[in-house]
Amino acid sequence: MSDLDEILEIVDEDNNVIDKAPRLECYQKGLLHRAVNVFVFNSEGKVFLQKRSEKKFGFPLYWDLSCSEHVKPGEGFEAAAKRGLKEELGIDVQVKQILPIHRIDNRDESNNQKYLDSELMVTFKAVYNGEMKFDPKEVAEGKFFNMEELPQPLTPWFLEDWKLIKNSAVQDMIK
Asked: pLDDT tens, 61-77?
């Protein structure tokens, strides 16, 4: 089964489940679904970014958050964040919510494909200093960056959440 066949819960603006659909259909129609973003920092305050695999449907080879993950049916946001870190980076670490639920919409119509991603997102942080083992289907490469010198290009959802955490009281929480 392809990642694009994964079944996601479709939600309304109040986060109530109203239907289910395959991930590809969600992307093609812009159906609102749940997801999490996770920023992993090390003890030096650097942020870990991953470069998306060239096989990713939207924004391949763009630099992205430490982890972005869809919430599976019946799963909570925090559980999805922890699962995503384990699956994509091979780490098991505690997470802390740093942004409340918010909506992120992205589109990419390059490469002859339609990618309309509408998500109700919760953003978490984690602190980790050890080794990581990347899932090559998800991650082309990854490393820690100084917060003022980020690589390019960056995914639009990274930029949106980065702006939110850099311009809010959350700044104290990520240190």
From this structure: 999 999 999 999 999 99
Nearest one of 128, 116, 142, 118 to 81, comparing CA atoms = 128
Q: What is the pLDDT of residues 43-101, one digit of tens each?
A: 999 999 999 999 887 788 999 999 999 999 999 999 999 999 999 999 999 999 999 99
**Contact predicate 73/8, CB 8 Å:** yes
Range of the domain at 35: 3-173
Q: For residues 82 and 27, what is the distance between their CA atoms, to the nearest angstrom?
A: 24
Q: How far apart are CA 6 and CA 10, in angstroms?
A: 12
Spatial separation of the C-alpha atoms in residues 145 and 172, rounded to whole Å: 19
Number of domains in the chain: 1
Question: Which value, in Å, is the radius of gyration of the alpha carbons in the chain?
Answer: 15
Residue-wise burial string across 38-69, b where 16 or more C-beta atoms lie within 10 A, e elsewhere: bbbbeeeeebbbbbbbeebbbbeebbbbbbbb
What CATH number is associated with residue 120?
3.90.79.10
CA distances in angstroms from 81 to 29, 39, 107, 129, 167, listed in the order given: 25, 10, 23, 18, 23
DSSP string, 63-106: EE-SEEEEPPTT--HHHHHHHHHHHHH------EEEEEEEEEEE
